[in-house]
Amino acid sequence: MTKLVMTEEETMLADMARGFLDGAAPVSKFREMRDVGQTFDRALWQEMADMGWAGVLVPEDAGGSDMGYAAANVIAQEMGKTLAVSPFISSAVIAATALRQVSDARAVEALGRIASGEATYALAVDEGIKFDPEATALQAKADGNGFRLNGKKQFVVDGALADRLLVLARTENGLTLFDIPADRAGVQRDASNMIDARDAARITFDDVEATGEDVLGAVDNAMQVLKPALQAGQAALAAEMTGLSAGAFDMTVGYLKERKQFGVEIGRFQALQHRAAHLWCEIEVTASAILNAGRMLDSDPEGAELAVSLAKARAIDTAKLAVIEGVQMHGGIGMTDAYDMGFYMKRARVGAEWLGDYSYHAEKIAAARGF
Amino acid sequence: MTVNPTDEFRAELCDWLEANCPQEMRDGAMTEDGICWGGKNWVFTSDAQKLWLERCAAKGYTVPTWPVEYGGAGLSRDQEKVFHEEMGRINARTPLQSFGIWMLGPALLHFGSHEQKLHYLPPIARGEIRWCQGYSEPGAGSDLANVQTRGEDKGDHWLINGQKIWTSYADKADWIFALVRTDREAPKHKGISFLLCDMEQPGVETRPIKMISGISPFCETFFTDAVIPKEQIVGEENKGWDVAKYLLTHEREMISGGGQGLGGGRALGAVLSDTMEEMGATLRADALRCEIDSLAIGLTLERYKDQSEAGQGAGDASAMLKYMGTELNKQRHELMMSAGGSDALEWDGPLGNRAGDWLRTKANSIEGGTSEVMLSIVSRRVLGLPA
Asked: For the ranges A242-251, B144-153, B205-214, B301-310, which has the lowest average pLDDT?
């Protein structure tokens, strides 16, 4: 029977990740990158790959550590606490999960390159302002033995610097997922200047050639490989956002204990105590939904939709509360660029939109729960 | 091939339920009429209710996780999950519920002597003795440790004088477990004892209090020279606060789970749709948010049970669960009222006691410690903020 308890291995993984990230990717490191406009640190990603993180969902015979979805969530959660920048969710979670749905030699090789850190991926799905894969309009028109892709994508997270792109396109009788190199002729990538200072791009596809080899899974049946990948990505993002909530919360409680007004620490005021305590309760409840989503993805991926949407919906709500309360309880200092809380607020807002917002996931839950 | 012990238990249980659960008890009734509280004065609402209680008690299924020697079935946590799943699957009524099961039992199992457990627990499990709780007083609400009910040491017994309030169902109970001040010189937390008192004696008098919901589940209980023999103390003299706090965590967990059973565990959307063909967009959105929070709180209850079984202490989690669970339950009943429209505004109208149930939930975030007290507990013990 599945248990909602962190296993010893998971606790060790979390401790190890924390230790590494505190040294290699503290918030100050993110600030340095933000200040110079850097959105990807290949050396840091290589270190993560060397620890097995890039291959967390890659089968061992393809060169991965194959630790499972709950473990991927543990890593994402720790990254969220200090806002570590990496293509972990795009490459190690989404792309790896999509590729492992396919068993051909090409996919195995691609998984190996993800695990080694050699190749990074971005998923190009959104075309409008909201996540809505079914509404994909980008055309992949059959042309001889291959296809020609025409259309636009936006909010392609990690898309400006990724080595490869997973592109969702409309084919004659449905949707098809393509796996192409990002530098293929006709692909024009424009980096977006994001509020969270991370990599995202608007990408134009102008008569981009794709062969049958580039199709991931079956033509007209993208969801067979994409749905598990999206679910894994949504769960990991929810985990990252819950880590982010915990990070913002820790900063806030720390501040309540040291900041003095009216001659005493402001943490003595019951008005603030109760707000902080309420926030802690919300984070605890969301943590249960995150753990459950990981367990479901590992034990019953086909039945995990409700668990994943529940995790993402709760994570969005909780992270929003954590950063709003974080700024409010810090007062004016929380509004300054010199202070880190604003970074948490901006990342929480981007995370709230990526891979489906609160309404999107609430509607999934409504469908599953008979609304 | 090895047989999974849980599967083996499930198979046995299914057979037993099939053979022993009367058809009339398979309606999942959670209404006041459907529940059996037991006790000396209990009048069974049907023969089936009596039979179902007796059969369950004989198997230890009224208190499935208690040790067998104290009237339970000694089930593990995995088996308990299976038990609830299978009971739910045939929509079986809970055979017995009581404060003895939820509150006193856990406290006795933790603090009681072997003799006390043997003496008090089996009658609780069989539904023979009904207990009530004597905690709050007119001057000791949120400040519970301020209890003034006095126990005067008379050698082999205490003489009790004072008044308790919010003694739920005291008018139907046989015994009361009470916090009594046995040392008036000591600091307020250190002079309290946890005593067990037979209510069938001169000097113990109970009066129901009519509540806004129209019913009187709460009472006032008065002690005038009531006698409690010395052996009827749980834990050590003047250390009753430890027992009281332990018991409160169980009470809080019980109250926090209150909303989960609403509508027989069905999704809120479905329950609301019972009375509305089409929910308005605003009500639907509110209900959906409530459903999401409810599912996550349900998982949190599971997580804490799993953690405590795995020996990872959940500590002061009960305060959090109580706060989140009761606030949510109040919201759910607000939505139920909204979905019921004017039909819900009549006492015993087309929707039965919906208004009474709604009003009753307003006590959830007060009884067993207010939401504000819960937040203060979290703030102090978990966040380490200064008192």
From this structure: B301-310
Over 60: is that where the pLDDT of B262 sits? no
Question: The domain that contains B227 carries what CATH number?
Answer: 2.40.110.10
Q: Do B307 and A5 touch (CB under 8 A)?
A: yes
Residue B42's domain comprises: 5-98+105-111
Residue B30 predicted with pLDDT over 70: no
Confidence of residue B275 (pLDDT cuts 50, 70, 90): confident
Tens digits of residue pLDDT in B237-260: 999 999 999 998 878 877 776 544
- In angstroms, the CA B133 to CA B173 distance is 9
User: Domain A223-368 in CATH: superfamily?
Assistant: Butyryl-CoA Dehydrogenase, subunit A, domain 3 (1.20.140.10)
Residue A3 has pLDDT above 90, yes or no: no
Would you state the CATH architecture of domain A8-119?
Orthogonal Bundle (1.10)
- Residue of higher predicted confidence among A307 and B278: A307
Among all residues of chain A, which has the CA nearest to that of B380?
Answer: A273
Total of domains in chain B: 3
d(CA B318, CA B326): 12
- Report the catalytic residues of B: 251
The ipTM of this complex is 0.94
- B104-121 confidence digits (pLDDT tens): 999 999 999 999 999 999
Report which residue type is found at B117: K
| Tokens read off for B91 | 């929509």
Chain B's closest residue to A362, CA to CA, is B288
Residue B120 lies in a domain: no
Question: Scanning every residue of chain B, which has its alpha carbon at the shortest distance from the alpha carbon of A313?
Answer: B292
Provide the pairing of β-strand A121-124 with A164-171. parallel
Beta bridge partners of A124: A167
CB-closest option in A268, A276, A288 to B299: A288
pLDDT bucket at B274, cuts 50 / 70 / 90: confident
Strand, helix or coil for residue B309: helix
| In a shared domain, residues B286 and B341 | yes
Beta bridge partners of B158: B153, B228
**Is A215:A177 a contact under the CB 8 Å cutoff?**
yes
Report the alpha-carbon distance of residue A230 to residue A123 in Å, rounded.
10
The answer to whether the Cβ–Cβ distance between B288 and A278 falls below 8 Å is no
Per-residue pLDDT for A127 more than 80? yes
Segments making up each domain of chain A, as ranges:
8-119, 122-216, 223-368
The span from the CA of B141 to the CA of B132, in Å, is: 17
Contact B296 A281 (CB under 8 A): no
User: Which of A265, A273, A288 is nearest residue B300 as measured by Cβ atoms?
Assistant: A288
pLDDT of residue A53: 98
Q: Give B59's contacts (C-beta < 8 A, 6+ positions apart).
A: B16, B73
Q: Which residues of A touch B (CB under 8 A)?
A: 1, 3-6, 253, 256-257, 265, 267-268, 270, 273-274, 276-278, 280-281, 284-289, 291-292, 306, 310, 313-314, 362, 365-366, 369-371
Nearest-angstrom CA–CA distance, B129 and B174 = 6
Q: Which fold has domain A122-216?
A: Butyryl-CoA Dehydrogenase, subunit A; domain 2 (2.40.110)
What pLDDT is recorded for position A263? Answer: 96
Put simply, the answer to whether B296 touches A3 (Cβ < 8 Å) is no
Contact A4 B302 (CB under 8 A): yes
